[in-house]
Amino acid sequence: MNLYTTRIDCEVAGHWRTTGVPFTLTDEQAAELTPPRGSVVAPYVPAPEKEKPHARLGRDKRRNRKAAK
């Protein structure tokens, strides 16, 4: 059992699947739906988490800031 996701919203293995939501399929079920035979289902790869921005000023903002009065 591996995790897969659909490229478009469609019915896969008797259930309605939405794009981006992972689901499990056996290798036999996925054989006909994954490339090179089909293009509806692809292996699920989680998106990397983005780093939270820090509170410091960036290079341009630091250079262009106004001086204190």
Tell me what the structure shows.
- A hairpin with a 2-residue loop joins strand 2 (10-12) and strand 3 (15-17).
- This protein has a domain at 1-45.
- By secondary structure, the protein is α+β, with helices and mostly antiparallel strands.
- A 3-stranded antiparallel sheet has the order 4-1-5. A two-stranded antiparallel sheet has the order 2-3.
- It is rod-shaped, with a radius of gyration of 22 Å.
- The mean pLDDT is 83.
- 16% of the residues lie in helices and 25% in strands.
Layout of strands and helices, then pairs:
Layout: E1 2-6, E2 10-12, E3 15-17, E4 23-25, H1 27-31, E5 41-43, H2 59-64
Antiparallel strand pairs: 1-4, 1-5, 2-3
The secondary-structure element order is EEEEHEH
What's the total count of β strands? 5
Q: Calculate the terminal CA-CA distance, rounded to whole Å.
A: 66 Å
Radius of gyration: 22 Å
Structural class call reads alpha+beta
> Outline, from the CA principal axes?
rod-shaped
Q: Spatial order of the strands in the main sheet?
A: 4-1-5
The percent range for strand residues is 15-25%
Mean pLDDT: 83
Helix content: 10-25%
Largest sheet features: 3 strands, antiparallel
Poorly predicted ranges (pLDDT <50, ≥5 residues)? none
Count of DSSP-assigned helices: 2
